[in-house]
Amino acid sequence: MAQEERAILLAVERALASSPNSQTIGRNGEIPFLQFLQRYLPSTLRATSGHFISPTGAVSPQIDVIVADARYPLLSENSDGSTLVMLHSVLCFLEIKTNLTTKDIRKSVENIKSVFALLRDVEKFWPPGSWTSMTASLLAYNCAQRLATLEETYFSNSAPEHAPFDSYLLRYHANDRSADGGIGGMLHLEPPFPDGEGRGTREDGFFPCSIPSHTPLSDLYYSLVQNSYYIIGERNYSFSDIGAQFNDYMNWATALRTENAKG
Q: What is the DSSP string of 66-131?
């Protein structure tokens, strides 16, 4: 995983050095991470980018990375590889940033809120944060600002009751990389204890956590795969359920004609 992490960062740096708008890493730098997931995810999971659509026809904003239940078919695939998938298939989604700033964090909070708002179309997926819902993450390859500044923005702007997400930072700002190898890490809001005995420093009771890591990509991969399987298990959809859901998403082209109409 450490080698994969370095390879991703090298690909991003090389592409950005050749052109600030390089298409070799995608619109937001999602291609190197997508390629990593496509190599390592089990065949039961699918990694793509694009949009999802709800059963009522509501379409999500553009999503950098979608991890979906591979039992579901794609609804469409474009020439650039982006796809349209069913909301019922989505397990996780990620926003990708090449060089994280406080502005990126605030924008991601709003983007993730708008995605989670569409989950109301499927009662089983509400509220966000439940094990039948989906998870969200922000992945930053590098940090343009110091860790303390990013932490303050993440912890003060995040709204876990509406848009729960963790931020994975592959590389801290150079001045924040510790001598013991904590070169990146995760920003996380831990919910209050179920028994109500302990509460964090925020008004909502969440505990702000900033967790350094030797290989943040490994932590993200482990969490993503584990959470995806937990969600599939909690939803407990059979193949018959998936077949019925598929019909809800398509306007089929079959023309029905009555005997009277034939004349």
A: EEEETTSPPSEE-TTS-EEEEGGGEEEEEEEEEEE-HHHHHHHHHHHHHHHHGGGGSGGG-STTST
**Two tokens at 262?**
């034939």
pTM of the entire predicted model: 0.89
For the chain, helix (H) and strand (E) counts, in that order, are 7, 9
* Closest listed residue to residue 63, CA positions, set 41, 39, 92, 43: 92
Burial class (CB in 10 A: 0-12, 13-18, 19+), 169: buried
User: E strands within 144-221?
Assistant: 166-169, 184-190, 207-213
- Secondary structure in 3-state letters for 39-71: HHCCCCEEEEEEEEECCCCCECCCEEEEEEECC
Distance CA 61, CA 160 (A): 19
Higher pLDDT, 177 or 172: 172
pLDDT in tens, 98-156: 999 999 999 999 999 999 999 999 999 999 989 999 999 999 999 999 999 999 999 99
Tokens describing residue 224: 């993503």
Report how far apart, in Å, the C-alpha atoms of 182 and of each of 78, 138, 163 are: 40, 19, 27
Pairing of strands 184-190, 76-77: unpaired
